[in-house]
Amino acid sequence: MLTAIAERSEIDPAVIEDVIMGCVGQAGEQSMHIGRNAVLASSLPQSVPAVTIDRQCGSSQQAVQFAAQAVMSGTQDVVIAAGVESMSRVPMGTAMIPGSGAEPWSKKVLDRFGVAAFTQFAGAEAIANKWGFNREQLDAFSLESHRRAMAAIESGAFKDEIVPVRITLADGSTALHDQDEGVRFDASMEGLGNLKTLIEGGMITAGNASQICDGSSAMLVVSEKALKEHNLTPIARIVNLTVTGGDPVIMLEEPLFATDRALKRAGMTINDIDLYEVNEAFASVPLAWLKHVGGDPAKLNVNGGAIALGHPLGASGTKLMTTLVHALKARGKKYGLQTMCEGGGIANVTILEAL
Q1: Three state DSSP letters for the chain
Q2: What is the mean pLDDT of residues 28-37?
Q3: Is residue 341 flagged as an active site residue?
């Protein structure tokens, strides 16, 4: 991915001043500073430094925000913001050292919030109940995610934002991997309705939650000075950077309130935003977000979301931002807003202007 960024932008890799890489499961193959290891495995020279960050599902969206802050401050001019997650090879929770008895939350913290543990499943159920959604509505939203993703694939909407990867199959032959694998072309309300809930008596299922998958993504963030020096053509401008913290128990609700703050700081309303990307960690999250901000469902995740395409944790931020920029340009639209729910009750919001 880092090599592709340099090749597609036609920038000299030696002028890249930093790589900020998001990754949640920093264990096993993703341990020992995967950001630096990714640089060493790429075409970038060893002189390019890197840092690996974890803001849970918003890790690479935060990478963009850190990169933008570096550029805005004048301390750097050319930075790659990226993210990676191999959820098949480094399963969720690996870094917690299962069975060790060393839990990430102290008794003091758990007692403070009156819970035995912090869980996104419980948070997703709580949001659905609080905002008045039922199982059928969650499944209907999920089906629409697959339908939009199918339409995007069939129309070639993702072509310019995907870096094809040649893979070796079990029989030794090779194939070009250039399409997301998670989309269910045969998805139906009946099929979704037959899935078991993750919590007894609940509404959340594997069908209306994001898919586990592998992925990586990256963006080049530069200053106006670098644009001129390296003859680059900008495709988007960052309008606003926001991150907030809220209730760690319901956890996934914070994008609603972070969006309020971002719009206020930008001097905008939701009506000024042409398209939104709200990560589909669970169907209840974007549905609650729409209801809270008064958004237009037709502007939300127009090419499908994580329920259909997958949610490779650390990579999702820059992946969604890439999709948002391309979707804006394809429709001749101007402003896009992206937000992520994140573990611990945190949320990032980034407002962009397509150029």
Answers
A1: CHHHHHHHHCCCHHHCCEEEEECCCCCHHHCCCHHHHHHHHCCCCCCCCEEEECECECHHHHHHHHHHHHHHHCCCCEEEEEEEEECCCCCCCHHHCCCCCCCCCCHHHHHHHCCCCCCHHHHHHHHHHHCCCCHHHHHHHHHHHHHHHHHHHHHCCCHHHCCCEEEECCCCCEEEECCCCCCCCCCCHHHHHCCCECCCCCCCECCCECCCCEEEEEEEEECHHHHHHCCCCCCEEEEEEEEEECCCCCCCCHHHHHHHHHHHHHCCCHHHCCEEEECCCECHHHHHHHHHHCCCHHHECCCCCHHHHCCCHHHHHHHHHHHHHHHHHHHCCCEEEEEEEECCCEEEEEEEEEC
A2: 97
A3: yes
